[in-house]
Amino acid sequence: AKLLNKKQVQKNNGRPLKCESQTEIKEERIQKYVTKKLGEDWIFLILLGLVMALVSWGMDYASAKSLQAYKWMYRELHPNVAMQYLAWVTYPLVLILFAAIFCHLVSPQAVGSGIPELKTIMRGVVLKEYLTLKAFVAKVVGLTAGLGSGMPVGKEGPFVHIASICAAVLSRFMSIFCGVYENVHRQLDLLVAACAVGVGCCFGAPLGGVLFSIEVTSTYFAVRNYWRGFFAATFSAFIFRVLAVWNKDAVTITALFRTNFRMDFPFDLQELPAFAVIGICSGFLGAFFVYLNRQVVLCIRRHTALSQFLTKHRLMYPGVITFLIATVTFPPGFGQFMAGELMPREAISSLFDNYTWAKYTGDPQILGKSAAWIHPKVSVFIIILLFFLMKFWMSVIATTMPIPCGGFMPVFVLGEFEFMLQGICLIDGVG
Question: Which UniProt keywords apply (predicted)?
């Protein structure tokens, strides 16, 4: 009726009816096209991948600069051992306490990994304040400070939570243009894709991100979410590695931790039993890691007086743990027997430098950062064993601190050194 009245008015006033109707038709077509594309989630997934790639690269850049300042401060105070120890302990202590205070004031929901809460949300339980912009800011700032302190804390778990918050905020923004994003089921589907993006832009591994979203975060995985997770994770991982090339951290777009296995003869059949033994041992040690972590948390909760004291003095627990770990890893002290001067990412990178430390007899300084594994009076096997044992319990208690932190990266470090240690033992036994 409105359209007929409008046509009659236009005809009575002598206006060109054809031009007006064509304009309305074009606007309607544009609106339908935009609504259709937004409904297919292409634009949403591109924005999600782009934002998370920028956030991941920015956090890595800031934490790397923080660690460089940490190592520079330690080197500049040489040969004053007392001042070196003071700097080695104070620097991470300040960052960890800052992360704990910031999260407590801005958003206490940002503490921890965030994956258990995210799994609860995906099962239909409403958890307030866990997918808000305040939690996003607290998670990013606190995690950056934690990674920049050099403590054995991981990035992947909290980053899955960060990606989910970003997806929730984007869905609320996109609902202005397309009402389909107000649907609760659609928002849960986008959270599954966000989980894949969180892993993909951490390690540049989109396939690993999709598998993570399938196996870990969902009891029931809808097939329609597979393409969403794969597309968003691939785009995010690609942008993340492009930013690394742009910052001259890499020559070209390659894997984050690149290996150089021979393609013509990647492994020997005789090695398969050794790999099976390593896998079995890793499974038991992984279960033991989870058991110890749980016991530490339950021990604090069961002791009412201790729990009340730590609740009243929130900075006491992270301060004591950081001080203890920094003291043990002090390089001129006990840290010289466990490569204490290497940061977590440096320890991983040293495994792929293609040096055989056990057979090296030249100047250790030629090895660069890998020289930390060589001691003139202690065997490299003892150093690797001490590193594994000390990092094991350090990672267990460090992941219980009230800051944004995860356990994936510390477990990766432990797994790689366990693989190396067991592999050396098996090779020696066979040889």
Answer: CBS domain, Ion channel, Ion transport, Membrane, Repeat, Transmembrane, Transmembrane helix, Transport
Exposure string of 358-374, with b = 16+ CB inside 10 Å and e = fewer, is eebeeebeebeebbbbb
Q: Are residues 204 and 277 in the same domain?
A: no
Per residue in 86-138, pLDDT (tens digit) is 999 999 999 999 999 999 999 998 998 888 888 888 877 878 788 889 999 99
Q: How far is CA 393 from CA 288, 306, 316, 386, in A?
A: 11, 21, 19, 11
For residue 414, what are the domain limits? 269-430
Cβ neighbours for 119, distance < 8 A, ≥ 6 positions apart: 216, 217
Burial label for 146, CB within 10 Å (0-12, 13-18, 19+), is buried
229/276 same-domain check: no
User: Could you tell me if residue 93 is inside a domain?
Assistant: yes
Considering only residues 114 and 1, tell me which one the structure prediction assigns the higher pLDDT: 114
CA distance 317 to 310: 7
Range of weakest confidence among 75-79, 194-198, 300-304, 406-410: 406-410
Q: How far apart are the first and last CA of the chain?
A: 92
CA 347 to chain centre: 17
- Same domain assignment for residues 238 and 284: no
Within the chain, how many helices (H) and strands (E) appear?
Answer: 16, 0
Domain count, the chain: 2
Last residue of a domain, one of 246, 280, 314: 246
How many other CB atoms are found less than 10 A from the CB of residue 99? 30
163 found inside a domain:
yes
Closest to 49 in 3D by CA, of 157, 185, 199: 199
Taking the C-alpha atoms of residue 5 and residue 173, their distance in angstroms, rounded to an integer, is 36
pLDDT at 44: 83
The answer to whether residues 233 and 287 belong to one domain is no
Residues 51 and 130 in one domain: yes
Q: Which two structure tokens, joined as six digits, stand for 117?
A: 């809460």
For 19, the token pair is: 């031009």
Of residues 3 and 298, which shows the higher confidence score?
A: 298
CB 85 within 8 A of CB 330: yes
**Tens digits of residue pLDDT in 292-328:** 999 999 998 888 888 888 888 889 999 999 999 999 9
Which pLDDT score is estimated for 192? 83
